[in-house]
Structures are given as structure tokens and as C-alpha cells.
Hints:
This protein is mainly alpha-helical. It has helices at about 1-5, 10-30, 35-45, 65-85, 95-110, 125-135, 140-155, 180-190, 195-200, 205-215, 230-240, 250, 255-260, 280-290, 295-300, 305-310, 335-355, 370-380, 395-410, 415-420, 460-470, and strands at about 410-415, 430.
Amino acid sequence: MITLLQMPNDEVKNQQSEVAVSSLIETSQNQGISFLDFDTLLNMLDASYDSFSNCNASLGEVLTDTIEKKMEVEVDVQTIYEDILSEGSDKIPKLNREMHSRYIHEMLNRPLPAPFSKLDASKTWIAFWLMNSAALIDNLNTKEQNNAAKQLMYFYKTSSGSKNTVAGFGGGLHQLPHLAASYAAVLALLLSKNENAWREIDTQKVKKWLLQCKNKDGSFSMHVGGESDTRAAYCALCIAQLLNILDDDLRKGVADWLIKCQTYEGGFAGAPGDEAHGGYTFCALSALFILLNPDELMVSGLNLEILIKWTVDRQYSLEGGFSGRTNKLVDGCYSHWVGGTVALLELLINYNKYKINDPNKYLSLIDRQRLQNYILCCCQDTFGLRDKPGMNSDFYHTNYVLCGLSMCQHFQIYDPSKAQKYGNAFSAYPIEIEQPNTITILDDNHVLGIDAIFGVPYGYALNMYTFFSNL
Ligand code: FPP
Ligand code: ZN
């Protein structure tokens, strides 16, 4: 509360901001600066452009904890941007590959520190986040790939379902097969490119287990008897697609159930009737993309207009990053969950609605430069990437912030011939954006283009699928 009461009211704050911003604009003009990242940063501080979205409450009004925290984040972010601007255009932070790389590889190559014992059921996730982060900045190595493959196969062989007719991956040794743990394991194995490990997966047993997780209404449960939500549907479909076991029994009723998860706000909830959220929305839309082609999606019952509106509303003008749901705080990981949704929506409207097939004329639904600025200025810890200023980096955010950075730098293009040959899940490919008014991509900041559905550098997923379809 103290912070709040000390905040200037809108009018005063806008005036202060205007003075600060106009002096910075003057400085930048005097220096002849015309970089998009720098200019965009200036606009981000322009109070007339929907900044301070939650400061409309009058002084003395009781505010929720969330709104107070949101205002504090806005002040932190504004201070960071002002400091950077006052130092000049060449002081916009670059992606600190060297330090992030040290963090990723150190953690991949040593036993996890003791406090990580809490994450004993998330070991397949840790492997995936770290390997994918390394792959995105293009320095995952063979030793790491082979070690990870060996570890992951222990989790498969010792999972509590393995001796029966069903099988999946637990999150660690001797654990219950779980869809999220299995999804992360299959993606990490895909990144390992280790075909000897792949050959040990009994895909028919995996299919039986996936069918056990499936419910009559078309939803999937996270594990047999567990909770059902759009994450479970997405994880199950990804696993089935990559292992080439996706058949009509697994597909039946899933798209209709997913459509029921779209809410009145436009985004998708975890389950029908719940609140729209970026994480669940990415899962639902990606799962729909696996099941349906863009033409089918347009007549599936999906309300595209409100989904687009809700998704673009997740981007905050001051911070530049996304929130996961209405009125909540910006967070770097939504650069992927919401950013990935944006990439799929752009594919849909560019290909289906406007029939644009020239990537240079693609419409961008969000302000990519603002998002990239948030990532580079606010989400870089000394080692690894993070949620927001004041937070420490972690493996999860390192991966999903890098995925978001990749989304900023690429468009997803729909290729009907790939859809025909390999299926809907493999119909999109990334191309680097070459529109200078959309984003500035310095070599230092460049990350690989990702697969829109699986969130891994492009090419790995098709490689695994091709292996299993040739068995
Ligand atoms: C809210 O957290 C988070 C959720 C409701 C779930 C998010 C779902 C995902 C990130 C998708 C996971 C995907 C797979 C494949 C398993 P919060 O209330 O702490 O955060 P918020 O305030 O930002 O909403
Ligand atoms: Zn987060």
C-alpha cells in the first residue's frame, strides 16, 4: 500500500513522463538515431499510448494485491527503459549468449544441486528445457544428447506402468507414467537425435497407455485417473504424432472438446467453464492444428475474431511483454505460450483469410519490437533468462523466453504440400522476418526458427516422425 499511496496520480505522472520522454526524443534526434529498437523503446514510455493500464483507479481506492504488484512492475520496467535510453542507442542490451550458454551447459553437465530434489518428478522437463535452450542458441552437443537419452530411457524403463501392457515416462526414476513428463521426455529425446534410444520405445504400449488416459468426452487426463485439461490433450497428441501412433481412436472427439474450452473472453481455459489463460490457449490451439487443417479449423466452431482480440490484448504497451490472463502481470514465459499462439493465428489469417503467400507482405498481429525489447532489457539475468525484473532465472523461463525471442524474429508459413505429405502438425515452417519496420534483428540476438507446434528448433520434430514412420 505504501508504494501505491506514493504514486503520483495519472495526470501528474503522465506530465512527468511526457517531459522525460520528450527530452529523450530530442536527444535521440540530435544524435540522428533511427534504430527501431531504440525508437520503439521511446514509444513504450509514451504515456498517451495506453501505458500504466492499471493506474486508472483513484487514490484511496482499495486495490487488489495483483493490481498493486502490476503497478510496481510497471515502475520497475519504466526505470529500466529510462536508464537504457539515457545511455544512448548502443546501450540496448544484446542477448548475452556466452553467459546464458555457461548456465545451460553447466546445469546439463553436472548433478543437480541439492535444492533441486523438490523437482524429482520434473526431471524430464529439466532435460527438455535445458536441451532446447542450448539447441535454440545452436550449441547443443553430442555428449549432452547421448547422456540425456540414456537418463530419459531409465525413466521410461522404470516407470510404474512399464511391466504391464501400458507404458509412458515418469518424471524421474520409478514414477507413475504422466502425460506432461512423457511429453517433455519425448521432446528431449527428439533433441537427442539418438535413434538407438528411440528404437527402445514400444510405441504400441505407449498408444495403449494414451488410450487409457483418454476420456469419453474427448478430453485426456494427465495420468490414468488424473485431472483433464487442454495441456493433457496437447501432450497426448504431440506424443502420438511424433511416435506415429496418432489414429482415429486417439483423435475422436478431441477437437470438439477443445472448442468447448474457448471462453467468452476469446482465449481458452484448461477445461470448459474455467478462465482463459495463455498456457492453456497455446495447448488448445496447437492441439487443434495437429487435428485440423486451416480450412477445417475455420469451420470447426472456433471463434477466431475473439481469440485474436484476446490474444493481442495480452501484450502490454509499456512493458512490451505478455500477461497470461486478463489484468495479470507481464511474464517472460508467455512470450512463448502467448507468442506461440500469435504465430499460429498469423499463419491462419495470412494464409486463410487474406490468402497472402508472400512472407514479405505478412501481417504481424503484435508489436514484435516491443516484445523483443522486453525480453532483452527485462528478462536477462546474469546467467539465464527470467520472468521479470527482480526475479532469478530458471530453466523453464530460459527456454520459453528464448522460444519467444525466436517468435519475434520469424513468421510461420503454411505449406500445403508438407501437410499433404506429413500431416497437419508438420505443415508450418519458420522464416526469418525481413521487414525492417517490423523488427531489428542483430546477429548477436538471433535465435533459430522454431517449429510452431512443438516449440523446438525447426527440423527436429519431422526427423523423429520420419524415423517412426519408417519403422
Ligand atoms: C497460472 O499461473 C498458470 C496456469 C493456470 C497454467 C499455465 C499453463 C501452461 C504454462 C501450459 C503448460 C503446458 C504444457 C505443455 C504442460 P499463475 O496464476 O501463477 O500465473 P498468472 O498470474 O500469470 O496467470
Ligand atoms: Zn513465467
